[in-house]
């Protein structure tokens, strides 16, 4: 094994001295042990700071805080706690029925006891109101409704305290707990359990795949180390953010997936380039410095593109989406930072020992290493594939585009809805209660529409308004008013069909448009959904503009081309069509629901398409940057367009595919969750990543670049000069000479360049 050669002070024999390495590179390579020690201390502090972060997270966040429904909900909670129950006790009296004296007496005792609990307001029941909506059609079950007030985390703590005292047998009745609070709390616990299982699945599988890619157990452990540092650091960041704002527990899934996935992407790219430099005879210091000047720039640039895609979710008011931006930006930047500090420091210390413990030797006969070992023996195949695609460029471009559009057609029939208890498995206790309420009761307790009335009014005016709204389309009945002090009252409206179905949403619009002698505000599940869709529609153009404009700018800074940034945006969008089509076909329409073990509801949660677009678009740009950077580097060196495309695919095709497969494994592990939205996110993004790496980067990109020819690299004079001054390139900083004219590159030079490891 070769000994690591140390460079003399002031420079190294390969031209990698401090003159071009920069302060950051000099620090990492000059003090690698100090760098690793500082990282170890910071990681230990992150473990302490991020401990218990999941317990401080929420499981909601789909509402617009500035919406009419949010205002009405908060006002009703203050003035009429019983109008917005979030805890339901389903009392089962068995064959005797809920009107039996013993069952009724026990139910009243439970209701009085619940009403005396600290933090519980607005207790009502079938036995106190006689409302038929609170009694099952067979007469065996009835409901006690209440509201646990306070912030989501405080309400969950109260539920944890009182649930064991009420759940189970109580003399002649048996009690189960449901309601929106119980559903959200059980969903939060389920997600935490599923995330732990996903990590236990993903980590060993990822390690096996990394060993297969690198061949070396030592090299395979490096990306896992980077990923673990990024995940632990992000948990600490999220713990700090929970001190100032709400954070969704769903964001932890993205932390794990991106922490492992992007760390592996960046580590693959850095270690690949480092091994290439070692293969040229450079010592460890020179190889690391060259790697940071070249691949390091691309990693940093790639991290910025992914972070921008995720940052676009900050424009939305729902904290569910904003939480993914917090987690995503943190984990991306931490993964890039670790890949550009810890990884180079480890490589300097390892030197040639990065290839130690080649476990693949156990599966094959020992043979001498090949010169193209850094390509995993696949580089020439990718070059030949690119050449074939470019020879039939129009055919591949048309057929691939048509195929992707065809796969995306089901998304044209998307129906947006809201998450409910059916996100949980059928055996979840709160889901069982909600199923019984949905199927066995004449109404949907806690699931109707509520109209808040503010302002002075007479009993006759209230009665006239109630009669008017009863006749509206989509309204089955209207009850009330329930009046309070200060000129406040509310009406309860039962809509047709599902609580958040199309009829209920139309009823919300009708109620808001109905004239009234007082101020009205409408809330309820259907109203929250309507307001959420309106907020998304209002902010979506801004989010899309941020992603598109910043992506165009960043890709221009990388390539100096006007056309390539446009191609990148369009082709990235095409790579997502299969994901969106599959989401509708599988999760909305219910195909494969038995195999995947979920309950289809006929719609997709409103925020999920936005979230999946931002995540998948950012990851697609990650792979696109890797390909474009190597292609541009070779074009700068040779001026040969077609050769540069083949070169780029040869040197990144295997890397991108390996990274995509590993990331897909992580996302599929996330997709084993028992919560439908998490399952949809994991499996959908896994499909998008694989389609981008194996179809778009392999077929569509080379065919489109062949069709655009040398025009691909064109830019007007002012923009070209701007790029010369501010652009980012993976080309070596010590080779500032301009590229030769394409006709000056000899056939022999092209041949030698294509054989370059």
Protein described:
- The protein is of the alpha+beta class and 757 residues long.
- It has 26 helices and eleven strands.
- The strands form three sheets. It has a five-stranded antiparallel β-sheet, with helices on both faces.
Keywords, please?
five-stranded antiparallel sheet, 757 residues, four-stranded antiparallel sheet, elongated, alpha+beta, disordered C terminus
How is the main sheet built? 5 strands, antiparallel
Globular, elongated, flat, extended or rod-shaped: what is the shape?
Answer: elongated
Helix content: 55-70%
- CA-to-CA gap between the ends? 21 Å
What is the compact description of this entry?
The protein contains 26 helices and 11 strands. By secondary structure, the protein is an alpha+beta fold. The strands form 3 sheets. A 5-stranded antiparallel sheet has the order 2-3-1-5-4, sandwiched between helices. A 4-stranded antiparallel sheet has the order 8-9-7-10, with helices on both faces.
Furnish the topology, listing elements before pairings.
Layout: H1 18-30, H2 32-50, H3 68-79, E1 87-92, H4 101-115, E2 120-125, H5 126-129, E3 141-148, H6 152-166, E4 168-170, E5 173-178, H7 180-214, H8 217-241, H9 251-279, H10 284-293, H11 295-311, H12 319-350, H13 379-391, H14 393-408, E6 416-417, H15 429-440, E7 449-454, H16 459-470, E8 475-484, E9 488-495, H17 502-513, E10 519-524, H18 525-559, H19 563-575, H20 577-588, H21 593-596, E11 604-605, H22 608-638, H23 641-670, H24 676-708, H25 717-726, H26 747-754
Parallel strand pairs: 6-11
Antiparallel strand pairs: 1-3, 1-5, 2-3, 4-5, 7-9, 7-10, 8-9
């Amino acid at each position: 094994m070769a000994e690591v050669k140390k460079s003399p002070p002031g420079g190294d024999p390969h031209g990698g001295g401090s003159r071009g390495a920069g302060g950051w590179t000099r620090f990492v390579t000059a003090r690698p042990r100090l760098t690793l020690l500082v990282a170890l201390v910071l990681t230990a502090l992150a473990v302490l700071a991020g401990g218990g972060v999941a317990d401080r997270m929420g499981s909601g966040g789909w509402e617009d805080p500035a919406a009419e429904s949010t205002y009405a909900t908060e006002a009703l909670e203050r003035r009429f706690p019983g109008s917005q129950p979030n805890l339901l006790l389903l009392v089962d009296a068995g064959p005797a029925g809920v009107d039996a004296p013993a069952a009724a007496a026990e139910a009243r005792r439970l209701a009085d006891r619940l009403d005396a609990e600290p933090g519980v307001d607005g207790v009502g029941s079938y036995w106190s109101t006689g409302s038929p909506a609170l009694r099952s059609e067979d007469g065996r079950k009835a409901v006690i409704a209440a509201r646990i007030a306070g912030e989501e985390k405080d309400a969950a703590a109260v539920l944890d305290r009182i649930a064991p005292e009420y759940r189970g047998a109580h003399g002649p009745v048996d009690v189960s707990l449901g309601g929106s609070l119980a559903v959200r709390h059980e969903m939060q616990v389920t997600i935490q359990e599923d995330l732990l299982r996903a990590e236990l699945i993903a980590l060993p599988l990822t390690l096996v795949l990394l060993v297969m890619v690198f061949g070396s157990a030592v090299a395979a452990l490096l990306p896992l180390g980077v990923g673990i540092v990024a995940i632990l650091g992000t948990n600490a960041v999220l713990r700090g953010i929970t001190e100032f704002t709400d954070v969704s527990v769903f964001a932890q899934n993205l932390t794990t997936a991106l922490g492992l996935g992007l760390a592996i992407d960046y580590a693959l790219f850095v270690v690949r380039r480092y091994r290439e430099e070692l293969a040229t005879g450079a010592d460890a210091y020179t190889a690391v410095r060259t790697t940071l000047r070249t691949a390091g720039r691309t990693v940093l640039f790639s991290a910025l593109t992914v972070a921008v895609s995720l940052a676009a979710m900050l424009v939305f008011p729902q904290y569910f989406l904003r939480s993914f931006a917090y987690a995503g930006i943190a984990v991306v930047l931490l993964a890039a930072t670790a890949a550009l500090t810890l990884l180079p420091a480890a490589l300097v210390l390892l030197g040639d020992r990065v290839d130690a413990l080649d476990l693949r030797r156990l599966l094959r006969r020992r043979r001498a290493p090949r010169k193209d070992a850094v390509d995993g023996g696949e580089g020439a195949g990718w070059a030949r594939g690119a050449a074939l695609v470019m020879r039939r460029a129009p055919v591949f471009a048309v057929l691939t585009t048509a195929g992707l559009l065809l796969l995306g057609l089901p998304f044209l029939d998307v129906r947006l809805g809201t998450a409910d208890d059916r996100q949980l498995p059928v055996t979840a206790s709160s889901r069982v209660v909600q199923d019984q309420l949905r199927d066995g009761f004449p109404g949907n307790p806690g699931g109707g529409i509520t109209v808040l009335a503010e302002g002075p009014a007479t009993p006759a005016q209230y009665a006239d308004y109630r009669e008017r709204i009863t006749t509206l389309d989509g309204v089955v009945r209207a009850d009330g008013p329930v009046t309070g002090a200060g000129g406040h009252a509310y009406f309860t409206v039962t809509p047709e069909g599902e609580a958040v179905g199309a009829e209920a949403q139309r009823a919300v619009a009708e109620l808001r448009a109905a004239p009234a002698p007082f101020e009205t505000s409408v809330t309820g599940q259907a109203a929250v959904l309507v307001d959420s869709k309106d907020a998304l529609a209002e902010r979506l153009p801004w989010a899309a503009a941020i992603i598109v404009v910043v992506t165009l700018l960043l890709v221009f800074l990388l390539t100096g081309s006007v056309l390539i940034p446009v191609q990148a945006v369009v082709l990235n969008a095409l790579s997502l069509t299969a994901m969106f089509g599959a989401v509708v076909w599988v999760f909305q329409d219910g195909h494969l629901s038995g195999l995947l073990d979920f309950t289809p509801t006929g719609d997709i949660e409103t925020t999920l398409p936005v979230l999946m677009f931002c995540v998948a678009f950012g990851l697609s740009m990650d792979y696109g940057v890797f390909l474009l950077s190597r292609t541009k580097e070779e074009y700068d060196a040779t001026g040969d367009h077609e050769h540069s495309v083949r070169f780029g695919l040869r040197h990144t095709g295997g890397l991108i595919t390996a990274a995509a497969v590993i990331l897909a494994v992580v996302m599929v592990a996330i997709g084993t969750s028992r919560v439908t939205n998490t399952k949809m996110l994991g499996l959908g993004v896994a499909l998008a990543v694989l389609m981008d790496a194996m179809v778009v980067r392999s077929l569509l990109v080379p065919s489109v670049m062949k069709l655009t020819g040398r025009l691909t690299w064109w830019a007007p004079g002012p923009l070209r000069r701007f790029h010369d001054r501010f652009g980012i390139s993976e080309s070596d900083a010590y080779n500032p000479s301009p590229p030769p004219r394409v006709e000056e590159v000899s056939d022999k030079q092209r041949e030698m360049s294509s054989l370059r490891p």
